[in-house]
Amino acid sequence: MILSKNINFRNFTKVKKDRVLKKKLEKIIYSNNEILKSLSPKYNYSFSKELVSKLKKNFSTVKLIGIGGSILGTKAIYNFLYKKVKKNFLFIDNLANQKFSVSNEKKTLNIIVSKSGNTLETILNTNIFVTKKSNNIFITEKKNSFLRNLAHQLKNEVIDHNNFIGGRYSVLSEVGMLPASLMGLNEKKFKQFNNLIKKKNFLENLTINTSNIIYFSKQRRFNSIIINYDESSDDLFKWYQQLVAESLGKNKKGIFPIISTMPKDNHSLMQLYLDGPEKNFFTFFDVIEKKTNKFKGINKLPVENYLKDKKLSEILHSQKRATENIFLKKNIPFRSFEILKRDEKTLGELFTFFILETILVAKVLKINPYDQPAVELIKKETKKILK
Question: Is the pTM of this model over 0.85?
Answer without folding.
Answer: yes
